[in-house]
Structure formats: C-alpha cells, structure tokens
Specification:
The chain is an alpha/beta fold. It has 15 helices and 13 strands. The structure holds ligand SAJ. Ligand SAJ binds next to helix 8.
C-alpha cells in the first residue's frame, strides 16, 4: 500500500518518516523545492529530537520525496491552517488546495486523511463540496495530529490518536495504518467530533497558561513570588497550575482557540479572554524591561538583549514566537537597536540578530531570557554579571528580575 504524505513540515515529515520506518511505502510531497531537494540529498529540513535516526531508518525502507502529487489510494494532508486576523475564523485555503490537487490525480475510492487542525465543521463546509464536485467516490478522514515539537518522535509512537470517519469500515482501515507505529489507544469517532476535540485540547492548554500568566501579573503588581505561590498551590492534590512565560507562541496553541472565537463569538468569552491575556505577555515583558532600565539608569535600548527567538525551548521553530511578538509591539527605532540571539536559529530572521553567543553577551547590559534552551542553562555562569530578566524561571542568581 502506497501513501502520499502532502506537506513535509513539522508534522508531515516526522509522520512520513515514521510510516516508512515501519514498513509503509511512502511518497512525501511538498511544493517547496528546497525542502524536497534537501531531503533527497540526505539532509533534514529542520532539527528535532530523534528525527535524524528516524530519517536513516526510513531511507533504508521505502520512501521518496517529490514536488509532485502521486496517484495512489491513500493521501495524508499535513499542511498549515492559519486564521484570518480580522474575523478570527480559520483560513483553510492550504487544505482546500491540497485536496483539489489530490482530486486531480487520485484514483476512485481513494481515502484522503486530513491531519491538519481544522475548526469544527470545516470539512463539511469547505472540503466535502470540493470533493463532491470531482464526481469521484472519495472517503474523507480526519486524524488530527497531537505531537509536541521537541518530543515528536516519542509522541508519534506513544500518544493516543483520534480518527474521525464517516464509516466504521474506513475508520478501521485507517486505524490499521496508524497501528503500524502508534502503540497507544486509537479512538474512532465521527469527523466533526474529531475536529472539535483537537481544537478543544489546544484551547484547554491556552486557558491554563493564561491563568498562570494572569497570576504572574497579579503577583508582580504586589511584589509576590508567583513561582513560590504556584509551587505551593500545586501541592494541593487537585491543583496543577502551568508556568507563566513571555507569551504563547507556536502555530497551534496561539492559533487554534481563535477558530472557536471566530465561529462561536457569543459563546467564547473565557476562551477569548485567555487568548488576550496570553497575547498581552510580550507587552508585559517590555514593560518590565523599561522598569528595569530605569531602576539601573540604562537608557539605550541597544544595551538590551533578548535571548531566544524560537517559541519554546530546544526547537528552531520561530512561528508566532513571544520574541517576534515583542518585536512587533515596539516602535521601529527601538526594534533596530534591541539585540537578539538564539543558538538554534542561524538564519537571519530579525534586524539585530547576533550569531555568536560571546558577542551577544559583550554587546548588552540587560539580558532577557525569552526561551529556556538547555544552551542557556549550561552557560548560565557566563551571564552572571549581567542584569537579567528571567521570564522562564531558570536562573537562581541573587537579584535576577522575574516576570
Ligand atoms: N507555555 C507557557 N507555559 C506553559 C507551557 C507552555 O508559557 O506552562 C508556552 C510555550 O513556551 C510555548 C507555547 O506555550 O510558547 C506553546 O507550547 P506548548 O509546549 O504548550 O505546545 P505546542 O504549541 O508546542 O504544541 C501543542 C500541543 N498541544 C497540547 O499540549 C494540548 C501538542 O500536543 C499539539 O500537537 C500541538 O500544539 C499542535 O500541533 O496542535
């Protein structure tokens, strides 16, 4: 059985590799020639724990990478689903285009599995009409991905999965495919339930992070230590507060809750507030930076350095990262002065990016820890003489500023 995996990004590539490594015949397709060329030349397109090893295993089996879609019976779509900034509704154009391309070449009775996160009802409203127009007999399945960057390979094998389909027969057929690499429970349901479940999972996490962030603001206003308070509160058997931070980044948690706000505007007061709290964190960090500058008689923004550009620790993914969000809310002049360093991000991504850690340290007086990479934990002694604003609570030096 041959499977065409469409979209070789953060989800599609690990999925294609794990499927091939477990004996399935895979063609990975991406419209981006650079990605396909890299993969065909033995190079991965991004860094991820365990991915190199999986790539080697996959190459020993049956896998090809191409910019072309191929005619087969099973297609797996893992393309991005952004949201419209104005209406907050999902923008499913990439999924729609991928489905159209599949329909141009696929055989009758093919199965199209959509792994991309979509808001409840998107498949009914946007995808089914496209499929109907093709006059082909096609089965649609929604199998939303659940893997977390930084631990993707482990989670592909060990996270439970949801498969939404129109019939139990098709759901079971797809379950057999996922069972080749997934050792956890595979739950079968209908498509809309699967769509809603995925968005709910990420919204749940967003709301809980927002609670921690709101607590950080309350504690900061009253000179209380939010981390000590969370630590004590979490000793209660039914309390589990997450960690405050400089904001919520990534392409999932900072996006998916908006789908619900866009579709159910009158019913999503809590979800919307949580989004707003998390979106306000980069401005809160900036406010803290300004207070700290004043307290230490520093006036030049050029003396401030942001450590970390990726949205979370030990990954190179900078999408919607709190650092980018922060740079968005400051004026142009300040933006060109403030320094940024990230050991995972070698490509020039912002104005004043410094590529050498020692140069970065030498050029600033204040370091704002935005991302808790292991790299900074291992090199923490090198910044002990700096003024530090630690938004991730990883630094225990005397006098370190916190959120
Ligand atoms: N964050 C905090 N405090 C916390 C936890 C996270 O500020 O206590 C921040 C992170 O630093 C990051 C953001 O939130 O900026 C999101 O990071 P994350 O690690 O919570 O999640 P993602 O976006 O990397 O992955 C999520 C996961 N969803 C859930 O945990 C419910 C993952 O399982 C999904 O597959 C993924 O979204 C996705 O693709 O939808």
């Amino acid at each position: 059985m041959k499977i065409n995996v469409i979209g070789l990004g953060y989800i599609g590539l690990p999925t294609a590799l794990i499927m091939a490594a477990n004996g399935l015949d895979i063609v990975g397709t991406d419209i981006n020639k650079d990605i396909v060329n890299k993969l065909n030349n033995g190079e991965l397109s991004f860094e991820e724990n365990g991915l190199e090893n999986l790539y080697k295993k996959a190459l020993d089996k049956k896998i090809k990478f191409s910019t072309e879609y191929i005619a087969t019976n099973i297609y797996l779509i893992t393309v991005p689903t952004p949201y419209d900034e104005e209406s907050k509704k999902i923008d499913s154009i990439y999924v729609e285009r991928a489905v159209e391309m599949v329909l141009d070449i696929c055989n009758d009775n093919s199965i199209i599995i959509i792994e991309s996160t979509v808001s409840p009802g998107t498949i009914d409203r946007k995808i089914r009409p496209i499929v109907s127009k093709s006059n082909k007999n096609i089965n649609i399945v929604h199998a939303p991905e659940r893997i977390i960057p930084g631990n993707m390979v482990y989670e592909l094998e060990n996270n439970s999965r949801t498969i939404g389909a129109d019939s139990l027969e098709i759901a079971n057929e797809i379950k057999d495919i996922y069972s080749t690499f997934c050792n956890a429970e595979i739950v079968l349901t209908d498509i809309k339930t699967a769509e809603m479940t995925k968005v709910v999972e990420n919204t749940y996490r967003d709301i809980n992070i927002a609670f921690a962030n709101e607590l950080a603001k309350i504690c900061s206003s009253d000179k209380l230590d939010v981390y000590e308070i969370i630590n004590i509160a979490n000793k209660h058997p039914r309390v589990n507060i997450l960690s405050p931070g400089p904001g919520v980044g990534g392409h999932c948690i900072s996006v998916d809750p908006w789908f619900l706000v866009g579709d159910y505007p009158e019913l999503t007061k809590l979800i919307k507030s949580a989004r707003e709290v998390n979106d306000s964190m980069p401005s809160h960090v900036l406010l803290r930076v300004k207070e700290i500058m004043q307290e230490n008689n520093i006036s030049a923004m050029g003396k401030v350095g942001l450590y970390g550009l990726s949205y979370k620790e030990n990954v190179d993914d900078i999408r919607e990262s709190p650092t980018l969000q922060l740079l968005k809310v400051i004026d142009k002049d300040t933006k060109t002065q403030i320094k940024v360093y990230d050991p995972f991000v070698s490509k020039k991504s912002v104005d004043n990016q410094i590529h050498d850690f020692e140069d970065f340290i030498d050029s600033v007086d204040i370091i704002v820890i935005m991302t808790a990479h292991d790299h900074i934990k291992e090199n923490i002694d090198k910044i002990k003489d700096k003024i530090i604003l630690d938004t991730r609570n990883i630094c225990s030096f005397e006098g370190v500023y916190k959120l």
